[in-house]
Write a structure and sequence with these properties.
The chain is mainly alpha-helical. It has two domains: 79 residues, Endonuclease Iii, domain 2 (Orthogonal Bundle), CATH 1.10.1670.40; 108 residues, Endonuclease III, domain 1 (Orthogonal Bundle). The chain is built from 13 helices and no strands. The longest helix is centred in the middle third of the chain and has 15 residues.
């Protein structure tokens, strides 16, 4: 596992000082244990993200294992994926749309539409999101997950994520589920460590934290 691109203790200290409610939640939820998978291979990381969309973890892992098996023990690479074509992807359990998305990802990895990892490390968060969203099947949420879990970026708040919305609702004692714009308003003061805040909001839902 690679390290986060920010200091864990500094992030938690900031969240505590910025918000008493979140600080109390942190006391109940425990240490900040976000793990970053890296350094990532762009095609492999995004292909996995596409496979995992809207599936349970177990089902997604099974399908992704079959997808990886198409490469005979080697790391999935864009050129080889393009060579496989559509039918083998459908054969391992990918839906029609996901098969097309993976092939589009492979094509845009190979033709330079997507930047290299060296370039991605130099781009700011919004620029990364804009570049990744050029791929079929990749939206802002998928790009934000890549920023948090593959790049270890410190200040990402995926406001459209249902788990984050439920966590904000629990931590702040809100009667109604907050809309994305309300999540952003509620959490703006948690910058520049909103990735850590997001992790705690997810944890709040996992542990059924009640404000």
């Amino acid at each position: 596992m690679s390290r986060l691109r920010y200091n864990r203790d500094q992030a938690v200290a900031h969240l505590r000082s910025a918000c008493a409610r979140l600080g109390a939640a942190i006391d109940r939820l425990g240490p900040f244990k976000l793990r970053v998978a890296g350094p990532p291979d762009l095609f492999e990381a995004l292909a996995q993200s596409i496979v995992y969309q809207q599936l349970s973890g177990k089902a997604a892992a099974t399908i992704y294992g079959r997808f990886s098996g198409l490469f005979q023990g080697r790391r999935p690479v864009a050129a080889e994926c393009l060579g496989l074509g559509y039918d083998p992807l459908r054969g391992v359990g990918l839906s029609h749309n996901k098969s097309l998305a993976v092939l589009d990802l492979a094509a845009k990895t190979g033709d330079g539409t997507l930047p290299s990892m060296r370039m991605i490390y130099r781009l700011d968060d919004q620029a990364v999101i804009e570049r990744l969203c050029q791929v079929r099947g990749i939206g802002a949420w998928t790009a934000q997950m890549f920023l948090i879990f593959d790049l270890g970026r410190p200040d990402v708040m995926p406001a459209t994520d249902l788990g984050v919305q439920k966590g904000v609702q629990a931590v702040y004692g809100m009667r109604k589920l907050p809309a994305p714009d309300e999540v952003l308003r509620k959490t703006g003061h948690l910058a520049p460590f909103r990735s850590a805040a997001s992790w705690y909001f997810w944890r709040a839902v996992d542990t059924r934290l009640m404000a």
